[in-house]
Amino acid sequence: MVKICCIGAGYVGGPTMAVIALNCPSIEVVVVDISVTRISAWNSDQLPIYEPGLNEVVKQCKGRNLFFSTDVEKHVSEADIIFVSVNTPTKTRGLGAGKAADLTYWESAARMIADVSKSNKIVVEKSTVPVKTAEAIERILTHNSKGIKYQILSNPEFLAEGTAIQDLFKPDRVLIGGRETPDGLKAIQALKDVYAHWVPEDRIITTNLWSAELSKLAANAFLAQRISSVNAMSALCEATGADVSQVSHAVGKDSRIGPKFLDASVGFGGSCFQKDILNLVYICECNGLAEVANYWKQVIKVNDYQKNRFVNRVVSSMFNTVSGKKIGIMGFAFKKDTGDTRETPAIDVCKGLLGDKARLSIYDPQVTADQIQRDLTMNKFDWDHPIHLQPMSPTGVKQVSIAWDAYEASKDAHALCILTEWDEFKTLDYRRIFDNMQKPAFVFDGRNVVNVEMLRDIGFIVYSIGKPLDPWLKNMPAVA
Question: What's the structural domain count of the chain?
């Protein structure tokens, strides 16, 4: 029986291994992590992450050929194929701080593999890593090999949160990069055989190691660039009276461009986009490609500009101050159908409003009160370190309360800010909300989910990203 072990029981490791286990009943799959609480959660009925469809998949194979364990060394030593899915946070100090990936956890995983292995291994990079990481891992393993042979493969994940299980069952492509040597090609084939249980062969792409590593960074950079492009247009639409939804619809009809990732919003978030672009910037700079680095930097700058622009719209619309005013925050996750808050634009928007002494009442159907408080008090990039290395439960932000539904969050509020496109925000009883708010009552729609005309008829002053401005907002500065 082929044995697979995955180091790291997070957003990538858990779902990916569950789907492999379900589709490959003849393979034993063990997910290991040093976090006892995380492994306990996977072994309970309350999984540590929310992802539509994940629960059902885990239930079907847990205890049969899918196992979760903290006995890392035992399962690593027994495995034929080891997936490494550990954190690769952005460095916060030293060489490349603020841009380069911190490979501390990767390196310690590689050294541990070398220490405990007694048989040949295929080691698969599953975390998003900077180009040439495989080479570094290879060196650590070969210099500590004790006669054991290792093959390193790059198999980047292309999961979108909220649709991760669907993405795993029906991927656009599975990418496997390896050495173009006889042993390297054999290792590529072994991993290909795993995916071939359910993925059509023409969707499994094989490349050299560097191409696979760079493809992941490039894919995320291209997607983020599309979002920043439409967000840049949204600012111009507001200035000219154009409607960004109409513009993106017209642009997306061009078959060379296509309609996806052209929705204007308060900005992109998630664990990958910003981190991968910063990584790309650092690699370009290290290779003397300053112009290329500056090009990709601009994608992040526009994203930061969009969040700042939103905060400035809120403050300038409300008589240039939100001090002491209650603002209902609708949604905190970085997008709907996930409880993930990593790099969510809501953090920067909330911090911007708190900086002007607003009182916030935050509601999100999937994010816990503890997580919201952590995010609002944590330093940038701290979120990407393992939980046990993050600051302990921080003191709560006094101006922030967590609401159990949208109506509580909006009661007596001066304004609502919609920051996640949860479907329920489209069907709220806005008449009831209006009646319970302070007047004038404002709605700042950062996701373009509400019916603007209907809300204006009720009496709201509405700002919707990239849409013709409410008469109230005309002649007010978009940027402080």
Answer: 2
Is 456 part of a structural domain of the chain?
yes
Which phi and psi angles does 400 have, rounded to 5°?
-115, 130
Whole-number Å distance between alpha carbons of 234 and 27: 49
8 is in an annotated binding site: yes
Residue 285 has pLDDT above 60, yes or no: yes
Other C-beta atoms lying within 10 Å of the C-beta of residue 229 = 17
The domain containing residue 439 runs over which residues?
Answer: 220-473
Tell me: is residue 342 an annotated ligand-binding position: yes
Active-site entry in 24, 61, 272, 350: 272
185 and 230 belong to one structural domain: no
Q: Is 104 annotated as a binding residue?
A: no
Q: What are the pLDDT digits (tens) for 234-250?
A: 999 999 999 999 999 99
Where does the pLDDT of residue 480 fall: very low under 50, low under 70, confident under 90, or very high at 90 and above? very low
Shared-domain flag, residues 146 and 24: yes
pLDDT at position 382, please?
62
**Average pLDDT in the 98-109 region?**
82
CB hemisphere CA count around 25 (13 angstroms): 3
Does residue 272 have an active-site annotation?
yes
Same domain, 302 and 447: yes
**What global pTM score does this model have?**
0.88
The CATH number linked to 118 is 3.40.50.720
Q: Which residues share a beta bridge with 122?
A: 81, 151
Q: Return the sign of the alpha-carbon dihedral for residues 73, 75, 80, 81.
A: negative
Q: Are residues 370 and 448 in the same domain?
A: yes
- 274 marked among binding-site residues: yes
Mean pLDDT in residue range 413-434: 98
List pLDDT tens digits, range 163-192: 999 999 999 999 999 999 999 999 999 999
Q: Which pLDDT belongs to residue 136? A: 81
Answer yes or no: is 205 within a domain: no
What is the C-alpha to C-alpha distance for residues 393 and 61, in angstroms, rounded to an integer?
Answer: 34
